[in-house]
Write a structure and sequence with these properties.
There is one protein chain. The strands form three sheets. Strands 5-9-6-10-8-7 form a six-stranded mixed sheet, with helices on both faces. Strand 1 and strand 2 form a beta hairpin. The protein starts with 12 loop residues before the first strand and ends with a helix. The chain is of the alpha+beta class. The chain has nine helices and ten strands. It has one domain: Spore Coat Polysaccharide Biosynthesis Protein SpsA, Chain A.
Protein backbone atom coordinates (compact mmCIF):
# COMPACT_ATOMS: atom_id res chain seq x y z
CA UNK A 1 0.00 0.00 0.00
CA UNK A 2 2.99 2.32 0.57
CA UNK A 3 4.45 1.92 -2.93
CA UNK A 4 6.03 5.28 -3.73
CA UNK A 5 5.45 5.18 -7.51
CA UNK A 6 1.85 3.98 -7.24
CA UNK A 7 0.46 4.52 -3.73
CA UNK A 8 -2.28 2.08 -2.72
CA UNK A 9 -1.62 -0.05 -5.78
CA UNK A 10 -3.09 -3.36 -4.45
CA UNK A 11 -6.49 -1.63 -4.43
CA UNK A 12 -6.06 0.10 -7.80
CA UNK A 13 -9.20 -0.38 -9.86
CA UNK A 14 -8.99 -2.63 -12.90
CA UNK A 15 -12.38 -2.90 -14.58
CA UNK A 16 -14.33 -2.68 -11.34
CA UNK A 17 -12.15 -4.92 -9.18
CA UNK A 18 -9.10 -4.14 -7.02
CA UNK A 19 -5.82 -5.38 -8.46
CA UNK A 20 -5.29 -7.75 -5.52
CA UNK A 21 -8.56 -9.51 -6.36
CA UNK A 22 -7.38 -10.06 -9.94
CA UNK A 23 -4.17 -11.62 -8.59
CA UNK A 24 -6.12 -13.77 -6.13
CA UNK A 25 -8.35 -15.04 -8.94
CA UNK A 26 -5.30 -15.95 -11.03
CA UNK A 27 -3.82 -17.86 -8.12
CA UNK A 28 -7.06 -19.74 -7.54
CA UNK A 29 -7.12 -20.56 -11.25
CA UNK A 30 -3.83 -22.44 -10.89
CA UNK A 31 -5.67 -25.20 -8.96
CA UNK A 32 -2.64 -26.15 -6.89
CA UNK A 33 -3.98 -25.58 -3.36
CA UNK A 34 -5.29 -23.12 -0.82
CA UNK A 35 -4.85 -19.45 -1.72
CA UNK A 36 -4.33 -16.89 1.03
CA UNK A 37 -3.65 -13.18 0.77
CA UNK A 38 -1.16 -12.15 3.48
CA UNK A 39 -1.48 -8.46 4.31
CA UNK A 40 -1.10 -5.82 7.00
CA UNK A 41 -3.94 -3.73 5.55
CA UNK A 42 -7.53 -3.95 6.76
CA UNK A 43 -8.62 -2.45 3.42
CA UNK A 44 -6.98 -5.30 1.50
CA UNK A 45 -8.42 -7.88 3.90
CA UNK A 46 -11.91 -6.44 3.34
CA UNK A 47 -11.52 -6.32 -0.45
CA UNK A 48 -10.42 -9.94 -0.60
CA UNK A 49 -13.21 -11.08 1.74
CA UNK A 50 -15.79 -9.21 -0.35
CA UNK A 51 -14.64 -11.18 -3.39
CA UNK A 52 -15.00 -14.47 -1.52
CA UNK A 53 -11.30 -14.94 -0.81
CA UNK A 54 -9.29 -15.65 2.31
CA UNK A 55 -6.92 -13.08 3.80
CA UNK A 56 -4.67 -13.26 6.86
CA UNK A 57 -3.52 -10.21 8.78
CA UNK A 58 0.22 -10.08 9.47
CA UNK A 59 2.58 -7.66 11.16
CA UNK A 60 3.36 -4.37 9.43
CA UNK A 61 7.11 -4.45 10.07
CA UNK A 62 8.19 -7.36 7.87
CA UNK A 63 11.31 -6.70 5.84
CA UNK A 64 10.27 -8.92 2.91
CA UNK A 65 7.42 -10.88 1.42
CA UNK A 66 9.10 -14.09 2.51
CA UNK A 67 8.91 -12.99 6.15
CA UNK A 68 5.25 -12.10 5.71
CA UNK A 69 4.25 -15.42 4.17
CA UNK A 70 6.18 -17.31 6.87
CA UNK A 71 4.02 -15.63 9.51
CA UNK A 72 0.85 -16.26 7.51
CA UNK A 73 1.59 -19.94 6.98
CA UNK A 74 2.26 -20.45 10.67
CA UNK A 75 -1.09 -18.81 11.48
CA UNK A 76 -3.18 -20.84 9.05
CA UNK A 77 -1.29 -24.14 9.38
CA UNK A 78 0.06 -24.47 12.94
CA UNK A 79 -0.01 -28.27 12.61
CA UNK A 80 2.46 -28.07 9.72
CA UNK A 81 0.50 -30.15 7.23
CA UNK A 82 1.48 -27.84 4.35
CA UNK A 83 4.68 -28.98 2.62
CA UNK A 84 5.08 -26.38 -0.14
CA UNK A 85 4.43 -22.63 -0.14
CA UNK A 86 4.34 -20.39 -3.23
CA UNK A 87 4.99 -16.67 -2.77
CA UNK A 88 3.19 -14.52 -5.36
CA UNK A 89 3.48 -10.75 -5.43
CA UNK A 90 0.21 -8.85 -5.22
CA UNK A 91 0.99 -6.72 -8.28
CA UNK A 92 0.71 -9.38 -11.01
CA UNK A 93 -2.87 -9.01 -12.27
CA UNK A 94 -2.16 -10.57 -15.68
CA UNK A 95 -0.39 -13.61 -14.21
CA UNK A 96 -0.80 -16.80 -16.23
CA UNK A 97 -2.03 -19.36 -13.65
CA UNK A 98 0.18 -21.99 -15.29
CA UNK A 99 3.23 -20.18 -13.91
CA UNK A 100 2.19 -21.08 -10.37
CA UNK A 101 2.26 -24.78 -11.18
CA UNK A 102 5.50 -24.31 -13.13
CA UNK A 103 7.18 -22.77 -10.08
CA UNK A 104 6.29 -25.82 -7.97
CA UNK A 105 7.51 -28.42 -10.46
CA UNK A 106 11.24 -28.32 -9.57
CA UNK A 107 10.44 -29.02 -5.90
CA UNK A 108 8.62 -32.21 -6.79
CA UNK A 109 11.29 -33.29 -9.29
CA UNK A 110 14.48 -32.65 -7.33
CA UNK A 111 15.99 -32.04 -3.93
CA UNK A 112 15.96 -28.26 -4.24
CA UNK A 113 15.05 -26.07 -1.28
CA UNK A 114 13.50 -23.26 -3.32
CA UNK A 115 12.23 -23.08 -6.89
CA UNK A 116 11.66 -20.08 -9.12
CA UNK A 117 11.14 -19.12 -12.76
CA UNK A 118 13.01 -17.44 -15.60
CA UNK A 119 12.45 -16.64 -19.26
CA UNK A 120 14.89 -16.24 -22.12
CA UNK A 121 15.84 -12.60 -22.73
CA UNK A 122 15.01 -11.73 -26.33
CA UNK A 123 15.20 -7.92 -26.31
CA UNK A 124 18.69 -6.32 -26.16
CA UNK A 125 17.51 -3.53 -23.85
CA UNK A 126 16.47 -6.09 -21.24
CA UNK A 127 20.00 -7.47 -21.12
CA UNK A 128 21.39 -4.15 -19.92
CA UNK A 129 18.46 -3.03 -17.76
CA UNK A 130 19.33 -3.29 -14.04
CA UNK A 131 15.62 -3.63 -13.22
CA UNK A 132 15.62 -6.91 -15.15
CA UNK A 133 17.24 -9.40 -12.79
CA UNK A 134 19.29 -12.10 -14.48
CA UNK A 135 19.74 -15.62 -13.20
CA UNK A 136 23.01 -17.41 -13.88
CA UNK A 137 22.67 -21.15 -13.67
CA UNK A 138 23.95 -24.48 -14.85
CA UNK A 139 21.61 -26.65 -16.95
CA UNK A 140 20.35 -29.73 -15.10
CA UNK A 141 17.80 -30.93 -17.64
CA UNK A 142 15.32 -29.76 -20.23
CA UNK A 143 14.04 -26.36 -19.20
CA UNK A 144 15.81 -26.46 -15.84
CA UNK A 145 18.73 -24.61 -14.28
CA UNK A 146 20.37 -24.85 -10.91
CA UNK A 147 20.88 -21.25 -9.84
CA UNK A 148 24.45 -20.17 -9.17
CA UNK A 149 23.84 -16.42 -8.87
CA UNK A 150 21.31 -13.64 -9.46
CA UNK A 151 22.40 -10.19 -10.59
CA UNK A 152 21.22 -6.86 -11.97
CA UNK A 153 24.29 -6.77 -14.21
CA UNK A 154 24.47 -8.19 -17.73
CA UNK A 155 25.76 -11.70 -17.06
CA UNK A 156 27.21 -14.12 -17.79
CA UNK A 157 29.69 -12.70 -20.29
CA UNK A 158 30.34 -14.27 -23.66
CA UNK A 159 28.05 -15.89 -26.21
CA UNK A 160 24.98 -17.70 -25.01
CA UNK A 161 21.51 -17.16 -23.58
CA UNK A 162 20.62 -14.71 -20.82
CA UNK A 163 17.68 -15.38 -18.53
CA UNK A 164 15.22 -12.90 -17.03
CA UNK A 165 14.39 -13.94 -13.47
CA UNK A 166 10.68 -13.94 -12.59
CA UNK A 167 10.11 -13.19 -8.91
CA UNK A 168 7.79 -16.07 -8.06
CA UNK A 169 9.16 -18.44 -5.42
CA UNK A 170 8.10 -21.88 -4.26
CA UNK A 171 9.54 -23.08 -0.95
CA UNK A 172 9.69 -26.29 0.93
CA UNK A 173 8.14 -25.45 4.28
CA UNK A 174 11.33 -26.11 6.22
CA UNK A 175 13.37 -24.12 3.67
CA UNK A 176 11.10 -21.10 4.10
CA UNK A 177 11.47 -21.28 7.87
CA UNK A 178 15.23 -21.54 7.60
CA UNK A 179 15.44 -18.71 5.08
CA UNK A 180 13.58 -16.20 7.24
CA UNK A 181 15.73 -17.14 10.25
CA UNK A 182 18.90 -16.08 8.41
CA UNK A 183 20.41 -12.60 8.57
CA UNK A 184 20.51 -10.57 5.33
CA UNK A 185 23.72 -11.46 3.51
CA UNK A 186 26.42 -9.23 2.05
CA UNK A 187 25.59 -9.92 -1.59
CA UNK A 188 21.86 -9.64 -0.89
CA UNK A 189 22.37 -6.14 0.47
CA UNK A 190 24.72 -5.18 -2.36
CA UNK A 191 22.47 -6.40 -5.22
CA UNK A 192 19.22 -5.78 -3.29
CA UNK A 193 18.11 -9.33 -4.11
CA UNK A 194 16.95 -11.41 -1.16
CA UNK A 195 17.34 -14.75 -2.98
CA UNK A 196 21.11 -14.32 -2.70
CA UNK A 197 20.74 -14.88 1.05
CA UNK A 198 19.67 -18.44 0.30
CA UNK A 199 22.56 -19.10 -2.07
CA UNK A 200 25.13 -17.58 0.29
CA UNK A 201 23.92 -19.95 2.98
CA UNK A 202 24.20 -23.06 0.84
CA UNK A 203 20.54 -23.46 -0.07
CA UNK A 204 19.70 -24.90 -3.47
CA UNK A 205 17.50 -22.94 -5.87
CA UNK A 206 16.28 -24.63 -9.06
CA UNK A 207 14.82 -22.63 -11.93
CA UNK A 208 12.11 -23.62 -14.42
CA UNK A 209 12.39 -21.92 -17.79
CA UNK A 210 9.04 -20.59 -19.05
CA UNK A 211 7.88 -18.67 -22.10
CA UNK A 212 6.17 -15.67 -20.56
CA UNK A 213 7.03 -12.89 -18.10
CA UNK A 214 4.03 -11.57 -16.14
CA UNK A 215 3.47 -7.83 -16.02
CA UNK A 216 4.43 -6.36 -12.66
CA UNK A 217 2.50 -3.18 -11.95
CA UNK A 218 4.83 -0.57 -10.43
CA UNK A 219 3.84 2.69 -12.12
CA UNK A 220 0.70 4.42 -13.44
CA UNK A 221 1.80 3.44 -16.96
CA UNK A 222 2.00 -0.23 -15.91
CA UNK A 223 -1.50 0.05 -14.46
CA UNK A 224 -2.87 1.40 -17.73
CA UNK A 225 -1.19 -1.41 -19.62
CA UNK A 226 -2.76 -3.96 -17.26
CA UNK A 227 -6.16 -2.39 -17.84
CA UNK A 228 -5.69 -2.73 -21.58
CA UNK A 229 -4.57 -6.35 -21.32
CA UNK A 230 -7.52 -7.25 -19.09
CA UNK A 231 -10.15 -5.31 -21.02
CA UNK A 232 -13.36 -7.34 -21.33
Amino acid sequence: MQATRLPGKPLADIHGLPMIVHVWRRAVGAHVGRVIVATDSLEIESAVAAAGGEAVMTRADHASGSDRIAEAVLKVDPDRSVQFVVNLQGDLPTLDPALVAASLAPLTESGSDIATLAALIREPEEATNPNVVKVIGTPIGAGRLRALYFTRATAPAGEGPLYHHIGIYAYRRQALERFVSLMPSDLEKREKLEQLRALENGMRIDVAIVDTVPLGVDTPADLERARRLLAP
